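Researcher: We plan to redesign the surface later, but first we want a full-length starting point. Tokens attached.
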């Protein structure tokens, strides 16, 4: 294979990966638990954007359940963001694992 051609393909792949990472970082991922009692929204760069709690979910006698629902919603939203990132980057990279990019 021609070295120039290979380098050009690598540069193109790097540009596509950077573009995909920017697009993913701007995406929002939402998860709800407890029948909609708790909603978490995160961005593609794994930043928590918001947590919304239905007032009916607040029971001073059972804060542990509310804490568990918040954790579950955050974990599900983060998992969704991570899965989407992995799928998108695999599509761009053709399944190649390049250290520092994934």
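Model: Full-length starting sequence:
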């Amino acid at each position: 294979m021609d070295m120039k051609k290979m380098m050009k393909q690598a540069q193109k792949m790097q540009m596509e990966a950077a573009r995909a990472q920017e697009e993913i970082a701007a995406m929002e991922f939402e998860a709800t638990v407890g029948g909609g009692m708790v909603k978490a929204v995160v961005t593609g760069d794994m930043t928590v954007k918001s947590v919304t709690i239905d007032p009916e979910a607040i029971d001073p006698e059972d804060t542990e359940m509310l804490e568990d629902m918040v954790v579950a919603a955050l974990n599900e939203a983060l998992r969704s963001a991570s899965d989407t990132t992995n799928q998108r980057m695999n599509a761009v990279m053709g399944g190649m694992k390049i250290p520092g990019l994934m």
